[in-house]
Amino acid sequence: MSDLPRILERAQAGDPKAAEELLPLVYDQLRKLAAHKMANQPPGQTLQPTALVHEAWLRLVGGGQRHWNSRGHFFAAAAEAMRRILIEAIRRKQSLQRGGDWQRIELDESTLVLERPAAEMLDIDAALEKLAREDALAADLVKLRHSVGLTLPEAAEALNISARTTDRLWAYARSWLRQELEHGESA
After folding, report:
1. What is the C-alpha to C-alpha distance for residues 145 and 166, in angstroms, rounded to an integer?
2. CA 96, 99, 100 angle in degrees (round to 5)?
3. I need a labelling partner for 87 at 20 to 30 A (CA). Which of 24, 38, 157, 166 fits?
4. How far apart are CA 187 and CA 170, in angstroms?
5. Hey, what CATH class is 109-186 in?
6. How far apart are CA 102 and CA 122, in angstroms?
7. Residue 44 backbone dihedrals phi, psi, to 5 degrees
């Protein structure tokens, strides 16, 4: 630590090797400073103290002029860099583009059952009967998903078929039904 003022002077003069020598001398203190700053952050912060130290370090020694009068001045600059990084992270997280203060809610597919008009239900039933004549397994999958509300993995288990087969069959059945329903409307 006694070499710190000399290394700071060399770094200020533009010596690229000074930064390499400086980091091991100040890393532990920067890490403690980052941990202290992170302790005061609201819950849900995704930035870790180590990442905060590295980002601050890049701002302190990466490009641009560096003017540190003393050890205290260097650590004050480091603290300010960390503060700005944390503020930027909070602003990014709260920006409208990233959802602002919205809370993420997991949706259960079984709760997405929509009320349908009777005529539409009859059209779907007729299309499903036609699909059953062409591909009974696809029709069974649609019935399990649409009527019972099973997820794809649950339907795969009920039909005793693999997940990949279920995915392919579901894509086929949806496409087939969409085409049948659209063709039926235009006829």
Report:
1. 11
2. 60
3. 24
4. 25
5. mainly alpha
6. 39
7. 95, 5
Token code pair at residue 127: 């299309």
Structure tokens that stand for 109 in this block: 């597919």
Residues 156-178 have pLDDT tens digits of 988 889 999 999 999 999 999 99
Q: Are 145 and 170 in contact (CB under 8 A)?
A: yes
Residues 73-102: pLDDT tens digits? 777 788 888 888 888 887 777 665 656 556
Q: In whole angstroms, what separates CA 77 from the centre of its chain?
A: 31
Q: Is the dihedral of CA 114, 120, 122, 126 positive or negative?
A: negative
Question: How far apart (Å, rounded) are the C-alpha atoms in residues 78 and 56?
Answer: 6
How many Cα neighbours within 13 Å face the side chain of 168?
Answer: 5
| Residue 40: DSSP 8-state | T
Question: What is this structure's pTM?
Answer: 0.47
The residues spanned by each domain of the chain are 4-98, 109-186
Contact 168/155 with Cβ under 8 angstroms? Answer: no
Answer yes or no: CATH 3.40.30 is held by domain 4-98.
no
